[in-house]
Each structure stands twice: as structure tokens, then as C-alpha cells.
Amino acid sequence: MLPGDGIGPEIVAETEKVLNRINEQFDLGLQFDHGLVGGAAIDETGEPLPGKTLERAKKSDAILLGAVGGPKWDNLEMAKRPEKGLLGLRSNLELFANLRPAILYPQLASASSLKPEVVSGLDIMIVRELTGGIYFGQPRGVRTLEGGELQGFNTYVYSESEVRRIGRVAFEAARQRDGKLCSVDKANVLEVTAMWREIMDDLAKDYPDVELSHMYVDNAAMQLVRAPKQFDVIVTGNMFGDILSDEAAMLTGSIGMLPSASLNSEKQGMYEPCHGSAPDIAGQGIANPLATILSGAMMLRYSLGEEKAAGAIEAAVSRVLDQGLRTADIMSDGMQQVSTREMGDAVLAAL
Amino acid sequence: MLPGDGIGPEIVAETEKVLNRINEQFDLGLQFDHGLVGGAAIDETGEPLPGKTLERAKKSDAILLGAVGGPKWDNLEMAKRPEKGLLGLRSNLELFANLRPAILYPQLASASSLKPEVVSGLDIMIVRELTGGIYFGQPRGVRTLEGGELQGFNTYVYSESEVRRIGRVAFEAARQRDGKLCSVDKANVLEVTAMWREIMDDLAKDYPDVELSHMYVDNAAMQLVRAPKQFDVIVTGNMFGDILSDEAAMLTGSIGMLPSASLNSEKQGMYEPCHGSAPDIAGQGIANPLATILSGAMMLRYSLGEEKAAGAIEAAVSRVLDQGLRTADIMSDGMQQVSTREMGDAVLAAL
Ligand SMILES: CC(C)[C@H](C(=O)O)[C@@H](O)C(=O)O
Ligand SMILES: CC(C)[C@H](C(=O)O)[C@@H](O)C(=O)O
Questions:
Q1: Contact B244/A227, CB-based, under 8 Å?
Q2: Which of A101, A258, B70, B223 could share a disulfide with A274, CB 3.0–4.6 Å?
């Protein structure tokens, strides 16, 4: 359990209550441990990812993360920022496969800024490559040119094997769903993504049951707004995935509901809400814990193989929504507004 | 006039009719010339940007471009693709400032996939850097690693002066509008954009009347969906600008209406619709010529200093919409569907 910053501690605390209950109910024998990451770790140790945290994370079957970052640490140099804690976990554990579902809960349909007919029943899975691309590419930095001008630079790089392994995860995911995979790139401009496209085409031969299509990233950003239900699974690189998964999440209007999983090839995984640390509402007890609770469910399913326990949590969350309970972010007329803790308690009660 | 590919020739032809009429009406003394670019140029000369086209473009005060690209040329190597014609024009003429308005026409409000209250009155200006960043960064390509694996790579690079000049354009634009500028970056991960952010902060000192804010690109992609009217002017780099400007355009539901301008420091400019070459409907006479006609208006305003003539075209387009005339892409109940040519004729009549 790595609560992190902002609303992280509050939402992880509720999730821990839920996981403790599930642990008893299903006799799972799970053991929980806690660690520092992000700004909280910087304040305590000077490092966004202390060695002790990384060591424990490596020895765990799964990690539940709240969120990292906040204005307090925004002026630190890049290498010492909270985000480096998150990025360090991703890369050190080789969590290359980031699964981000964008699902519209029927109970929350009105929260979307899109017309109901455009988003009702929305269920997209975004598969984002998470340990490569421009996030980790070398060389990177800011240098001084002759004449004294500054120049900033980053490198967008993928090797064939990196693309193949994320591609396989995406094809497998599509196979489990509606059999449609859209690979997003900028193959008309960027060589690295032209290579990406060719590798996806090559992989497609092994998945004749999956229908592969390609889309340029600018068009994908448009199509998500225009007609998001055309998508089943989307696969893309780290940077485009960052942008498109947040856009897709926001189509639902309830990003406070959306979990995510980041897996390595041993199915060890890190689970976190799609939303961030929301420093503006931290400590007020009003944050929505459901995305983190649902991340706990994903953890049970993907890393711990406890499908039944995962389903029980998801059913409990659905029940609570049916009861009309809402945190402030998803509040609407006629519903009952509850605090972070009350929402956690309601899920416990539903369990 | 560079019609290009797909629907390009059809929509440029209608715009030429309109510009000819305006030329007479306002006695502007404009002279028009024509050239090949993109796939059309490849078919004729083997090159996406023939020397003759570039030479003429350089000697022109302004360029009106239709669109480039299509499946016919999709399998050519990167250096010989239609897109290189467009990118070559941008870089050779140093058209670094791309202005992309996202405006919701009240007559077309129902075309948006967003709820009316979210988008009514929407009027955002996206200022995209167009001749730098990862689009043009070196080194780039695909190499074979030891062991035989392929590796693709591109470079995201900006110099201080490149950021400063686009920043100034954006601050000036904000000053002309509601005085709010949002600079979009990924300063928490990419060094080049952390530099971008610092330079924007520095420029802000020269524009005390403009309120500068910063936003991460993933959040911007979300906020555009959630509450687009919070934005006035957005400034960002080439790649993020490509994605966000298309997303913003699609919020209106009528991308067939949106023009764009690409300017250099001498106000020489290239003008084109925000939409692409739409190969699927090319040659059918059903494309919407209004984005290109409105690009002609922007051309009169920004490069030729003919504000009155520009306003006349914009008023004529508005009139035609009031009359209920619609091409297929913006058709709705109770309106009258017209062809590309009929739409051009209607604008002429309104003039
Ligand atoms: C906090 C940040 C480094 C991170 C990212 O860009 O990957 C976040 O936006 C995310 O999507 O998980
Ligand atoms: C055609 C393509 C190269 C171009 C770009 O990516 O800049 C287009 O998408 C645009 O936005 O003008």
C-alpha cells in the first residue's frame, strides 16, 4: 500500500478497509504492508522512491497506489519530483502494460458532458505502453547552445521487442472482449510510430480472430469525442496513451470511478485510480474512493487470481451507486451526498 | 492555390470562386496562381513538394491549401509521402505560428456530441508551434540494434528562441481576445517542456495584462471534454497542438467549418481547413467547402490586411447557414442538404 500524496492517504485508507473485509470473507490470506512514495517520501527521506519502498514493492505480489504529486513539490528539479517515484516503480518493476478501462456506469450517465446517446453503454479498454517511449528515452535534458541559447530535448524511442510485448497484451485483451483492436500512432510523421504500425500488422497474423485497425493520434483524439463507442480496445505508446486515456476517462464524466492496472510479464502489478492527487481537495474528506476501491478489485483479478473476490467488490460498488450514494464529484439532483469515509463504509456494508 | 488531394480540389475550387468575387467587389488586385503538392504532386512529378511549387509559394503573399494525403500513397517511404509536401512548405517558409480557432457556430450547435450547455458559445484559439518539436527533430529513423532487433527513434527538441517566438504570438493573441492564455506541456516528465514552461513564465512579465496558466497535456485533453469554455487561448508545441487542436475542433461537431492559418514572422501565411483530405468522399461533390472558404477569409485578414473583405466572407457564410443550407457533414432535421458546388454558389449569392 503506497498512499502517496494529496487525497492518496484518504482513498487508500477506505480501500484498505474494503480489502481487509474481503480478505476475511474470502479467506484470502493477503498480507498488507505500507510504504512511502512521491512527495510524502520526499518530505520524510529526501527521495521520491526510497530504496526501502522499492525493495518492498519488488517483494509484493501487487501494489496499491493512491496518487503522487502536488504544488508543494512542483519546483523541485525533475529528478527529485514526486512523479519520479511513480515512474521509478513502473520502470524498476517493468510494469510495461497499463490497462485503463473507460466505462460509463449507467447510474452516472448524466455526469458526462457528452450527449447520453453518444456515451451510453461506453466500455473502452486503453492499453498503454508504460515503461518506454519518450517517458524514459535517452538522451534528454536542457543544454546551452553556442551563443548561449538554451535547448531542451527528449527522445521518443521504442525497440521492436517493447512494441511486440505490449502489442500481445492488447491483442489478448481484444480477444477477451469484442475482438476489435485500434492501434494509435503518428505513422505519417514519426518514424518510431511507423515502426510501431508495422509490428502491429505483423502481430495481427497471430490473432486472426482480432480485427486490427490503425488510427493517427490526432484523429483518435477527435473520434473519442465524436463517436467513442466505435472503440473496443485501443493500444498506443506511453505519451499518446497518457493523453488519450485521460480524454477517454473524462468522456464518462466520472473519472473518480475509474481504476487502472499496470502489469509486468509475471502479472505482478501496480493498481491505482486514473485520477490524480487532487491537492485542492486533499484532507477534506470529500474525495471519491471508488476508483481506488475498484483498483483493488482489479488487483484481485489480475495479480492475485481472485476473480470471485474482485467481482464481489465490483458488485458492492454498483449496489452503493444504486442506493443513490454519491461523493461530491459525481453528485447530482436527488442523490445523497456522502463523504470519503461514508462511501467506504457503504461499500463495506454492501459487502 | 494548392488544391492537393482527396476533396482538396473540390473545396479549393469553391473558395477560388468566392475569392474571385471578393477580388472584384473590393478591388483588391489579388493575383492567383496554382501549384501541385502532396499526392497530386507525387503522381505528376515524383515529389510531394516540387521545386516549382516551393518557389512559387515563397514568392506569394499567401497560400491557400486544400488538403494532402490518402491511402493511395500510404505505403510510400516516409520521405516521399504527401505529408512531406505540407511539412516542407511549413518549414521552408518558416510558418511557425499555427492559429486554429475552435468556434461553435450557433446555427450548428446541435451537431456537437457534447451537451449544449457545455459548448454553446465556445470560442477557443489554439496557437500551435508548427516548425519545430518532434515533427522536425533530429536524429530520427529506424536502426538495427546488435542482435538484429529494430529500434525506432525521434527527437523532441526546442530551442529557447523557438519557444519565445511562438509564445509572443500567443500572448499577443490573448491580448486581442479575453486576456487568458493557457500553456500546455508535460513539464513533470519531459525536460524540453519544463524549459517551455519556464520561458512562458519569463515572457509573461512582458504581458502583465494577460493571465497565464499552465496545464499538463493529459489534463488539457480532459478539460477540453469536461469544460471547454474555461479556455481562451491555448499555446503548445507541435505534437500536442496537433492532438489538442483536433480534439477542440471536434467539440464543435462541425470540423468541416473550421479554418486555420500558419504564419511566419513576415505575416506570410498558409491557410487551410482543419479537416483532412477525406479520401472516402473525394470526387462525390458532397464535401463541405466552408472551412476552406473561411480559411480564405483568414488569409485576407492576416496576410493581406483586408479586414473588410474578410468580414464580408464570414458574414456571407453566416447568412448561408441562417438560410438553412447544409452539406452532408453538418446536415440536420429540417435543413436543406446541398452539394459542395451549391454551397459555394450560395456563398457567392450571399456576397
Ligand atoms: C503523474 C504522471 C507522471 C503520470 C504520467 O504521465 O504517466 C500520470 O499522468 C499518469 O497518467 O499516470
Ligand atoms: C497531415 C499531417 C502531417 C498534419 C500534422 O500532423 O501536422 C495534420 O494532421 C495537421 O494537423 O495539419
A1: no
A2: A258
Task: Among B150, B189, B222, select the one facing A160 at the smallest CB separation.
Answer: B150
CATH value at residue A138: 3.40.718.10
| Rounded percentage of chain A residues whose pLDDT exceeds 90 | 97
- Is B281 annotated as a binding-site member? yes
Grid cell, residue B13, equals 475550387
Q: Which of the residues of B are catalytic?
A: 135, 186, 218, 242, 246
CA distance A181 to A167: 10
Q: How many domains does chain A fold into?
A: 2
Residues A240 and A279 in one domain: no
- In whole angstroms, what is the distance from residue A180 CA to residue A186 CA? 20
Residue A274 and residue A298 in contact, taking contact as beta carbons nearer than 8 Å: no
What global pTM score does this model have?
A: 0.97
- CA A329/CA B79 separation, integer angstroms: 48
B75 — pLDDT class (breaks 50, 70, 90): confident
Closest CA in chain A for residue B119: A113
Residue B78's pLDDT band, with cuts at 50, 70 and 90, is confident
Could you tell me which residues come within 8 angstroms of residue B24 by beta carbon, excluding any fewer than 6 positions away? none
Question: Which among A251, A275, A310 is the end of a domain?
Answer: A251
Tens of pLDDT, residue by residue over B197-208, are: 999 999 999 999
Tell me the per-residue pLDDT of A265-298, one tens digit each, with 9 for 90 and over.
Answer: 999 999 999 999 999 999 999 999 999 999 999 9
> A255 and B222 in contact by Cβ < 8 A?
yes
Residue A138 confidence class, pLDDT cut points 50, 70, 90: very high
Task: Work out the number of other CB atoms within 10 angstroms of the CB of residue B206.
Answer: 10
